[in-house]
Design a protein that fits this description.
With 353 residues, the protein is α/β, with parallel strands linked by helices. 41% of the residues lie in helices and 15% in strands. Strands 2-8-7-6-5-3-4 form a 7-stranded mixed β-sheet, sandwiched between helices.
Length: 353
């Protein structure tokens, strides 16, 4: 369950490649690269690294509060969203959780490793595009007697999106069961609608996690944050290691949230490239799950052969066989630049025939 996309280092070692010889479709990162103003702020703050970072991340939390029109005291920032995922079960002492299958594996791993929690899998159906059916999930919530429900919206690796109205109904049901509903919105910026951040202050059991590494192309810097009920935010920060978000990441986060033009350009570019990929998959008679995010889940009977062929061409894709509910016939590919997307389709066509 520890395997993730983006492990270019193992890939380069195995195939004797350099960074310039790799096209990484396994990690779903904004193809535009980091915003220019973020790079400028990182450079401007290089002379600050002689000092410790602000352990309370005051300026960054204030900026996040301003962006979402929320109290900064309800915000906790982390060394990527993953740090918060691992802090939550330890701080809140989760013993039994509900997770969809398939979804991001670290929800389950964090709860098992940190608290030896038991897990209820809410299985999603392939013939329903792995959509979450509200009535079915509510039934699971009411019968599960769990401490927490983890949802990823859009879901990873399927890219399927839960409408805000449906998600709020699920969260309200969880509240009545005194179950925390943790919504991971790491990829929701690629959708641009549907966030439930504004509902947290009205629901003491709703938690929203946000990543800044995917949309702003900063995975090597590590930055994420969560919006929590006030008492939960204080508990999370109390359990957090000091200085977990470094000086450069804090400066980058503040600058990124100021860049509206970058957001608009991203949506325009990824929308166009998604159409190119979908047309290409259709021409190759390749099954793909319609996605609201910047990645696609593909099902190929010979997925392992395709993956190996692409690797020999210097193209890394995400093997999805370690996702609960999927098998060796599934891979995930990111939406990248026009040239890179066409290279992927070209080599897939050579392999699929």
């Amino acid at each position: 369950m520890r395997a993730h996309g983006g492990d270019i280092y193992t890939f380069m070692e195995r195939y004797d490649k350099t960074l310039t010889g790799v096209i990484d479709f396994s990690a779903s990162i904004n193809p535009l690269g980091p915003p220019d103003n973020v790079i400028s702020e990182i450079k401007r703050h290089l002379n600050h690294i002689i000092h410790y970072p602000d352990p309370d991340m005051r300026r960054l939390r204030a900026k996040i509060g301003q962006t979402h029109n929320i109290d900064p005291e309800s915000v906790a920032c982390g060394n990527g969203c993953t740090e918060l995922i691992y802090l939550l079960p330890r701080a809140m002492k989760f013993k039994k959780i509900i997770v969809p299958a398939p979804t991001y594996g670290d929800y389950e791993r964090a709860c098992r490793v940190m608290m030896q929690a038991s897990v209820i899998h809410h299985v999603l159906k392939r013939d329903e595009n792995f959509d979450i059916r509200v009535a079915g999930l509510i039934k699971t919530i009411r019968s599960g007697e769990g401490d927490a429900l983890f949802l990823c919206n859009p879901n990873n690796p399927t890219g399927r999106f839960i409408e805000k109205e449906d998600l709020l109904e699920i969260a309200e049901t969880a509240k009545k069961q005194r179950m925390y509903c943790i919504v991971d919105e790491s990829f929701i910026d690629f959708v641009a609608i549907g966030s439930v951040v504004d509902a947290v202050k009205k629901n003491p059991y709703l938690i929203v996690l946000k990543s800044m590494t995917k949309f702003y192309a900063l995975p090597g810097l590590r930055l994420g944050y969560g919006v929590f009920p006030m008492r939960v935010a204080k508990t999370i920060r109390r359990h957090q290691a000091s200085w977990s978000v470094n000086t450069l990441a804090q400066a980058a986060g503040i600058a990124a949230l100021d860049n509206d033009g970058y957001r608009e350009m991203t949506l325009k570019v990824t929308g166009k490239q998604k159409r190119i990929l979908e047309e290409g998959f259709s021409c190759l008679n390749t099954y793909y799950v319609p996605s609201s995010a910047n990645y696609y889940l593909l099902r190929l009977p010979n997925a392992r052969d395709v993956k190996g062929y692409l690797e020999n061409k210097g193209i890394l894709v995400r093997d999805c066989s370690n996702f609960k509910g999927l098998d060796h016939t599934y891979i995930r590919v990111a939406v990248k630049s026009s040239g890179q997307n066409r290279i992927l389709l070209k080599h897939m066509g050579e392999c699929i025939g």
